[in-house]
Amino acid sequence: LGWIAGGTNDELPLAMAVAGVGALAGVIGIVTLAREEDTRFLCAIFILGIGIRCTIAIVNHTLLPHGFFAYDDGRYNEVGRQLADYWHHAGPYPEYIAHSNQVGWFYLNGAITWLFGFVPLVPAFLNCVLGPLSALAVFALARAHFGRPVAVRAAAFSMFFPSIVLWSSINLKDAATVLCIVMVLHHALSLQRRFHPGHLAGLLLFL
Question: What is the pLDDT of residue 4?
Fold first, then answer.
């Protein structure tokens, strides 16, 4: 798999480990934080959402032409590799981001490459977890303000809407951005109801 996609040979096991740890952390969070009547539903759609996205990620990574869904997918991989080379004193700073202040997802790709080698499937699998986490956050937000029926529908749409599934199955910053936006809304609305240092810290963190 690594040879076909241009990554290292241990790319798929590493990506699966990332998704597995994320899935385990999400399930623990659900069991710990969610109401008992919501736990089974949330665990089911969370695991299913990760599975669907990981399948799409593997198909995109191994069978489809480069940039089939989004050219930026490859751009993040390549600039991440250039950043890792730069940090290893093996190349110049990437020209593509030399004059940009929007470098967060590039730096994350660079850090992954610096640590594990060129493994483009890993950031895609990370997104396969971040996307479903966003749906859980949407459920919590809707549950607190509109009740369970609205929350169930909102979670289902945000978990399985086709374009959302696609963009959180490849190496783009969209999944992380959506998660940050939802968490900012959650903490801002919580602060509006009642001040709490934890919500203030969360708001600042996700901003």
Answer: 41
Max CA-CA distance within the chain? 55
**110-126 burial by CB neighbour count: b if 16+ within 10 A, else e?**
bebbbebbbbbbbbbbb
pLDDT at 83 over 60: yes
Q: How far apart are CA 73 and CA 54, in angstroms?
A: 15
pTM: 0.91
Q: How confident is the model at residue 201 (pLDDT cuts 50, 70, 90)?
A: very high
Q: How many CB atoms lie within 10 A of CB 176?
A: 20
DSSP element (H, E) containing 64: none
Length of the chain as a residue count: 207
Helix segments in 34-147, DSSP class H: 36-62, 71-87, 104-116, 121-146
Nearest to 135 by CA among 154, 108, 121, 111: 154
Please report, as a single letter, which amino acid is at residue 199.
H
Rounded to whole angstroms, the Cα distance separating 115 from 77 reads: 14
Whether the CB-CB separation of 175 and 127 falls below 8 Å is answered with yes
The DSSP code for 102 is: -
CA–CA distance, 140 with 145 (Å, rounded to integer): 9
Instruction: For 119-135, write each residue's pLDDT tens digit.
Output: 999 999 999 999 999 99
DSSP 44: H
